[in-house]
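Running log. JK asked me to keep both predictions on one page so they can be read side by side. First protein, sequence followed by its tokens:
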Amino acid sequence: MHTIAIVGAGESGVQLALELHRNGYAVTLISDRDPAEILTGNVMSSQCVFSGALAVQAPLEISSVTPVDPGSPEVQLERISLTLAGAEPLAWSSPLDSPARSVDQRVKCSVWITDFVSEGGTLLIEKVTVGRLEELTRVHDLVVVSTGKGELGQIFTTDRSRSPFDKPQRALALTYVNGVEPDAEPGIRMTIKPGVGEFFTFPGITTSGLCQMMVFEGVPDGPMDCWTSVASPAEHLQKSLEILAEHFPDEAARFTHAQLTDDGGTLRGWITPTVRHAVGTLPSGRHVFGLGDAVVLNDPLTGQGSNNATMAARYYHDAIVRQGDKPFDQEWMKRTFDEFWRGWAQWSVTWTNSMLKPLKEHQINLLRAAEQHPALAGAIASGFDDPRTLFPWWYDAAEAAEFTEQMAAEDTSTFDLRDFRSALGQFATGVTVVTTRGADGRKVGITANSFTSVSMDPPLVLWCPSSRAPSLGAFAESTHFAVNLLSSGQHVLSRQFATPSDDKFAGVLTRNGIGGIPILEGTVATFECRTVARYTSGDHEIYIGEVESYAAPGGDPLVFHGGAYHATATHPDF
């Protein structure tokens, strides 16, 4: 079994260490602080984990962290409330599809590291230099660097094509407090004040139990870029309350009696949003692999820090397992990061960067229309959990107008469509990618779980794409399509083909089937079909195909149930 060293004990590093160790890998975790020092130190970031990331963490049994005070409740964030201040203010609130949670990283990381050690993992406490990295690469098969502190931050060069900013876009401050009037329905409250900045707040668990987390994002050189003279925790709290009173008066009353949770409950600074090349080359020529903030440093404006950390750790873990006994060479590192970038990070980064810029007219129109249309407000709220769902309508005026009409229509439907989708999601299905080749020769693919057999003789199957699917025209033009049943390890492909992209097939291994239709490699089964009938029914198309060729190498299929991916298991009664 490979030996792996992970440098940096933040959220992504410790999660990866725990998961790999529990899968039998020999893992050494290296931190510059022990769990007690982390717990009593300063806060490290704002902290919110949305349901998609919680679902990834759940099998590891690390999603619920017991606070220091066992009597403290676990807070579930049920909704997002958004206010746009200014001459024409707007405000709305929408429930999240599934609750989010917030636990101070000091608590979370100290507990996870303690678990890692108690389960037999190796923990080293030291400050790692480039020279020390050289030593680690000589005795480990893979060295992962999940911290960009100090000289380690110079190992990974900036990817200019993915880094549009060369300086911080916000002056940042974080304040953890007690004594705040609670919301009737716990959630995330976000206020945007154009030209000034943003304030968002939500309840969470810290070292002393329940608290309220306050996050300030000030536009550079604006009135909220005012933290340089603050020198003490007391001054930090006072400045926080002054900003609320002046710029966010609707929120200020709740914080009248706010007190810091502890002297470590403050953080100030600046972040330049940056994407770096994930393969770092040491002076010896050996390579190390960047993870988390070391290579994808996002502004916290959209609360994606924990989402990104969790998803990055999961992508890396899966790629490590798939690699088996083969070496972790430079090409493998690049391929693994590119997979994470295509499947998750690019969407999170693009959305956050768009919010750091002045909102465009169509984006303001979307926010304003959400006041009148709960379905649209829900769609925007869902973007915090999964930023891929915001594409393409958040970024394109024409798409935004069409999407607004679609959401307005949902509000007049017979059922609450979000709830109806949830009910339908209780039927567990497999996950497929349906592929074809357009008349212009381009490869086309779309994720679908609306697949079923129709007839044995003749051999017929069907699937049902949305009438609004951008690639629908290619299927209408083609005489054939292929249904690729994904394996449990291909959830990355499910996400990749479910999200709009210029090239969904980037990095995907395929072969040509009937008529040149692309067939995905590594699936549990593939059915190559000739289209024999097509019907429009409601807001979907029904495609019936006659199977002309099939292959079923078998394996564990990817299963979708209740809005999450699952793996199959034999029922205990059999």
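And the second, directly underneath as requested:
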Amino acid sequence: MFAAVAALVVSGCGGSGTGGQQASAPGAWPPATGRGSCAVTKQENVPATMRDGVVLKADVYRPQTTDPVPVVLMRTQYGKAAAQIQPSRYQTPDWFASHCYLVVVQDIRGQGASGGTFAEFAHDRTDGYDSVEWAAALPGSNGKVGMYGSSYVGATQWMAAAETPPHLTTIVPANTSSDYYDGWTYEGGAFRLAFVEPWAMDTIATTAALNRGDTGTAKQLQADAAEDTRWMGFRPYQQFPPMHPGDPAVAPWFFDWIRHSTRDDYWKQWSIRDRYAAVKVPVLDVEGWYDAFLAGGVQNFGGMVSGGGSEDARHNQRLVIGPWDHVGWGRPGSGVSAPMLNGGPAGNSPINDLMLAWFDHFLKGKDNQVSGQPRVDYFLMGANRWKTADAWPLPNTRWTTYYLSGDGTLGIAGRAGALTTSAPKDPQHPDHYYYDPLNPVPSAGGHSCCGASTGPQGPFDQYVVEQRSDVLTYSTDPLPADTELTGPTEVKLWAASTAPDTDFTAKLVAVAPDGSSINLNNGIIRAAFRDSLDNPTPIVPGQPYQYTIKIWPTSYLVKAGTRIRVEISSSDYPQYAPNPNTGEPFGQSAATQGATQTILHDPDHPSSVTLPIIPAGDSGKSEFPLTR
């Protein structure tokens, strides 16, 4: 049944695209070169029985050798036949098997050919543990298991690792988060609309319907996903028609996400950042500067270095961050924005060769120097070269604070705001703008997911967006010398609103001498969540509060003559669901109200931005360094 209608599903977050075992033409992905010495056979739909009796199915790629070999396991909700090959990511499973690994690609519960009922996040901790131990006992296995995969397939690795299965030896998650509330479904308390709705419709809800034989619902979901921009305007979210709110068979988990709009126990049960001590294995983590889950991936690296559950784990953490959004990873045809392609071939992801070397080291014991101490490999955009450090944030970071300054005319008379290293000493008039939830600021790039047609991703010129009266801009003077920015940026914003709840957004921008302005990254805070993601509290209309807006990390060489700019607003749609300003529970009502926002930058309210400036010196490497 599933195979007959699988053509309904198109590539989405995590890539449920068609894939294949060989390149279809010269230069196509994946290349047929680089295979190992082992011939490979394939077994389809090999059963694995979970602790509750549910049977999951896997394809097993078996190298033809008499020697016991390690297992490489992928647990995916996007189709085991696809194996996250397209768009232009991983090599084929039989390519890895040809290097004398037993490769297992398994459909998770309620997806593909596997049994059970699908519920996002719900079973991947225990099913992950059981699947690792099952794979370790397969004929021909030497008992060591490594895992790989991107996006939710990275999440399945972390959730398995947090259960500490004894035969799990290492994981290689890519483009995945540290928490499935903060930085996945929500960010700063704001719902990540452009990611969540299209992803849920176009992939996991559709494939779950196919798994249970409900082709009618699958076709309807696919048709609705083709009109995702129309559906993203629907309110209230708790009555979202494509997901059948009255039918618990379709997507009850989606409506759970709306009801649980704070970081409560529903989300904490799956959090990775709360469980680093339980993860006892080395981790190779691959992220992208414009990826939807970058902040969580970076947090996983630091959390494991400081709090991993074994000395082996703490010493063997490696983080790779490239000039990529969520899929394609810079390769030709990946659909990234034009500025991102400026990195050239050096910016293509090295994940397949690196992952193979990583598995050779940790699963086969080869001394190839891929690890041994914490390490960060990052691509410096603008210079288009790789650099390496031994910690994150970089140990030599010079945290530099700039203060917002203006004459009170922003939002009325244009773009007069400044960023200066001197804190305000004299009174300054605040700046104002009017935020209308029914006329939100359009997203122009960003760190959403999962494809260019749905989630705003990547760097784009912000010039048109900056002409709006509800977008305030604060800029430095032209920089006198090339300046590297690498790391997270933090905005401390003093602001007041006439509403009982609202949002404030911040965007870090590089403004070239010709006036083009490219977003480096962005962040958001929902006012009620200013002090806690667990226990939001309303604001008093008209009262100033200090808000911390965490702009996600970047690495960019700002050339001499370029200005650094911070944009301040209250919406970024559809990257985030517009705050209706009513203070009502999230997703339950379609009501909205406008709000006048006040941005303060005087001696008593010194709004500021702290930038991660890296001193000049190390020129880096133009090609990716696989080893030391």
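Observation for JK regarding the second prediction: The longest helix spans residues 193-211.
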